[in-house]
């Protein structure tokens, strides 16, 4: 008998610990609470309060005053942080995405308004150009459409500084350019933002699960080609560890794995290997598939939502960015 767990029936009956609620609760290895959730929120610069997103039922793009209400709600639900993503009016998009550097733009406005209303809620800002470029890529492109690494990184540095100046607690580069974490850290230090945190989208995969998000931020029709020259190949796992190691060395305070559920193995490897707060992003397509199957009565939506959120904890995630945060937060507070 070489098993490290010598167990014999009927001395050992694992079902004894499952026989009723109290013992299941007592022996539960993981628990999901509102403080595990990061509210993924799409904001827009128009007057309309709430604009529905077709491919993401019950999700709305919020204007600034609705975003402020949402920040107060996050506080009352004990949701520690909000990750904001902008839907930019197409008239303000161009080839270089320079609206991303506008200190009076949508994101700086939202940050200031939210921090005023709910200073105890952390604000996490997406650092990337895709909401701002007319071609929908996360960076500057050359004449062949190739996304330029170092030139893009220079813009991301400026974008991160604009966000930090507006009061963002965390800047979260989601672009997958090489070297941008070090460049952003250096610039934040130089500008006196020594306490601004960096959450690196370190292992972001070129995924089909982002479809509804591109609808939500209005970059779906704009996007030409795909993002495979900068986002990771879904076939790879060792490569994710190299990405994470580099970003930590360059100054990342937390790292992210994205998408979430299809990449739980990566969440596990990263959190075990590096012992750094590892955030999982339950992306738009993951949200949409649960909502769609639930609407047809094919699955119990609430139950599957909670099961997926808990599975991130089990895999080792310190937190989960999710479009379900408000609703799951309400259920968890009941
Ligand atoms: N930079 C943020 C995203 O790409 C979000 C993707 C999604 O929710 O599908
Ligand atoms: Mg990288």
From TrEMBL:
Q: What is this protein called?
A: Delta-aminolevulinic acid dehydratase
User: Which reactions does this protein catalyse?
Assistant: 2 5-aminolevulinate = porphobilinogen + 2 H2O + H(+)
Give the first-level EC class, as a single word: lyase
Lineage start: Bacteria, Pseudomonadati, Pseudomonadota, Alphaproteobacteria, Hyphomonadales
Pfam families the UniProt entry points to: ALAD
Q: Does the keyword Ribonucleoprotein apply?
A: no
Identify the species of origin. Answer: Henriciella pelagia
The record, for SUPFAM superfamilies, names: Aldolase (SSF51569)
Keyword Endoplasmic reticulum assigned to the entry: answer is no
Record EC number:
4.2.1.24
Q: Which domain of life is it from?
A: Bacteria
The family database entries (InterPro entries) matched by this protein are listed as: ALAD, ALAD_AS, Aldolase_TIM
Gene3D superfamilies per record: Aldolase class I
Q: In which pathway does it act?
A: Porphyrin-containing compound metabolism; protoporphyrin-IX biosynthesis; coproporphyrinogen-III from 5-aminolevulinate: step 1/4
Keywords from the named record = Heme biosynthesis, Lyase, Porphyrin biosynthesis
Using the record for this protein, list the coiled-coil segments as residue ranges, or answer none. none
Subunit structure and binding partners: Homooctamer.
């Amino acid at each position: 008998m070489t098993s490290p767990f010598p167990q014999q029936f009927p001395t050992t009956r694992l079902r004894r610990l499952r026989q009723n609620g109290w013992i299941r609760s007592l022996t539960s290895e993981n628990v999901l609470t509102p403080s595990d959730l990061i509210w993924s929120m799409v904001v827009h610069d128009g007057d309309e309060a709430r604009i529905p997103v077709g491919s993401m039922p019950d999700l709305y793009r919020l204007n600034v005053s609705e975003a402020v209400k949402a920040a107060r709600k996050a506080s009352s639900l004990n949701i520690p942080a909000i990750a904001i993503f902008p839907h930019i009016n197409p008239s303000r998009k161009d080839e270089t995405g320079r609206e991303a550097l506008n200190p009076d733009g949508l994101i700086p406005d939202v940050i200031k308004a939210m921090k005023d209303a709910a200073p105890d809620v952390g604000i996490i800002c997406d650092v990337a150009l895709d909401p701002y470029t007319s071609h929908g890529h996360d960076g500057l492109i050359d004449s062949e459409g190739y996304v330029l690494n170092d030139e893009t990184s220079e813009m991301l540095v400026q974008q991160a500084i604009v966000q930090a100046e507006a009061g963002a607690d965390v800047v979260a580069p989601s672009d997958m350019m090489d070297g941008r974490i070090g460049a952003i850290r250096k610039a934040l230090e130089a500008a006196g933002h020594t306490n601004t945190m960096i959450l690196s989208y370190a292992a972001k995969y070129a995924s089909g699960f982002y479809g509804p998000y591109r609808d939500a931020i209005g970059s779906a029709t704009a996007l030409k080609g795909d993002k495979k020259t900068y986002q990771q190949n879904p076939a790879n796992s060792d490569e994710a560890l190299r990405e994470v190691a580099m970003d930590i060395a360059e100054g990342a305070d937390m790292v992210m794995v994205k998408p979430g559920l299809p990449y739980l193995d990566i969440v596990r490897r990263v959190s075990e290997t590096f012992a750094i707060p590892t955030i999982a992003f339950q992306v738009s397509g993951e949200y949409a598939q649960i909502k769609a199957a639930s609407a047809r009565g094919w699955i119990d939506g609430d139950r599957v939502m909670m099961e997926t959120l808990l599975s991130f904890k089990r895999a080792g995630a310190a937190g989960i960015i999710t479009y379900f945060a408000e609703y799951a937060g309400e259920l968890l507070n009941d």
